[in-house]
Write a structure and sequence with these properties.
Elements lengths: L1 H16 L3 H6 L23 H12 L1 H10 L8 H7 L11 H12 L3 H4 L2 E2 L5 E2 L3 E7 L5 E7 L3 H22 L1 H5 L2 H16 L1 H14 L6 E2 L12 E5 L4 E2 L3 H6 L4 H19 L1 E3 L7 E3 L5 E3 L5 E3 L2 H15 L3 H11 L8 H13 L11 H14 L6 H20 L5 H16 L2 H35 L8 H37 L3 H33 L1
Parallel strand pairs: 5-10
Antiparallel strand pairs: 1-3, 2-3, 3-4, 4-6, 7-9, 8-11, 9-10
Helix pairs in contact: 1-3, 3-4, 3-5, 8-10, 13-18, 13-19, 14-15, 14-19, 15-16, 17-18, 20-21, 21-22
Amino acid sequence: MRARFSRYQEIADTLARHGLGFLVGAIGAGRWVAPRRAGRERPQDPPYTVPQRVRIALEELGPTFIKLGQLLSTRPDLLPPAYIVELSKLQDSAPPIPPDQVRDAVWRELGAEPEQLFATFDWVPLASASIGQAHAATLQDGTSVVVKIRRPDAVRQVQEDLEILNNLAYRATRLWAPARTYDVRGIVQEFSRTLRAELDYLREAGNAERFAELFADQPAVLIPRVFRDRTTSRVLTLERMSGIKINDLAGLEAAGVDRAALARAGAEVMLRMIFEFRFFHADPHPGNLFVQPDGGIALIDFGMVGELSEQLRDRFADFLIAFTLRNADALADALVNVSLTRGSVDRDQLRVALVSFIELYADRPLSEVNFARLATELLVVVREQRLQLPREVSLIFKVLIVIQGIGVQLDPDFDLTAVLAPYARTLIQQRFSPSEIAKRVARASADAGALLLELPTQLRKALDVLDRNGAEVHLRAAELEPLVARTERIGNRLVAGVVTAALINAVGQIVARGNRWRSWESGLMGAGVAVVTTLSGYLLWTARRRSRWD
């Protein structure tokens, strides 16, 4: 208990010492600031900016807080660019684990000494970080491997800090309005899940094997083999990947690698992960990408991955469709639908911001749009409107921006949008495929059925209340938004269902009557009448609804 109190005091004291008293107040940690620090902050010489002071404080607070800063550096939807730049500088390094502890960990986990398990084992680590460190080794058959070993006390230290962070996030949510707006508790809980997963090397092993299976048809993409007989949750043995770092321009030039082709190939690999596999490497920095003499690409470090659900993929497609049409209303709907923001959203203000955003690209085809610039400007709108994107969507934006940066470094004429366009087209086509429309109709039917089933019970409850005491009704538009939004979603789905049914009916009539023009004419006429009637009624209902609530 005393150790826990000391850690709280260390956190509050470090923040106050670096001139971050506003954060101390926001998380309700003022009572833990040491008396000698209260009311005064350490002068900075030379003067640092606030983002720099945040970075320095996180570095002093150790591994868990460095990891938190690294996570936040991937969230341009939450933080301004100056913070993203500073937090991206955080380096996760630590003193090496003593050799006797390395030996003990291998023996406990694998049941034998390193000399028995490996033909050679280099006791000087390749790298040493807060969670663990990596050693070069070779198997008895001469295969070069990397052995990652988790630090003995890593789980205990991380677990203690995560509990403290969750407690501080809870206090911040109660004391500071922005913490509620941006769901700081949810962010910390997501970070906790991510970091706990990183502590388990079996997860990283599974990620590597999954990528190897997905890229089995693409020999130019190399994924390290996992040696399961020498892997546990604390020790991970992987095939060692070699090659030229993707940002080593001189090395690539000397090896005769076509840099323009490499830029496109690297982008294709990442885009295939995101849009085809919906499972992607979330940390594709140059140190994790090695180029082979023949232009192939080897990937390493699978601790951080993203997985895109079918629903998120569809919502991302809605965003692409809205942007392609330069439709501010549809773009606003797409952003609100994908965001995790709690509370009401000022759609009028969001629409005004998006109109200005769209005007920047009004006269340009998608092929001429700089995606990195587009993403950065869109994320400014998202942040200013206090929308919070799901982690996976933020990671996609981050990955695409990194790809653009690496691609331009390799080839100044590299155009990510040209590589992205076919995937975007496929995504949009899938969104309107018959099978996808059928799924949406089925979901609409399920929602409508659920409402119909609930209706008698809810009406009976309402009548009981009226019979007993009467009722006073106080309505605010903001409180009605969830109900109206759900009704509107069902309306959208039902319209799609009726349109699809009309078209299917038309095709059925044509097939039944034979290939005569009259059959085509009457069938399509019937479909047209059904579509026009349905859309007219729905648009009239929507207009009335908006006029009442706007």
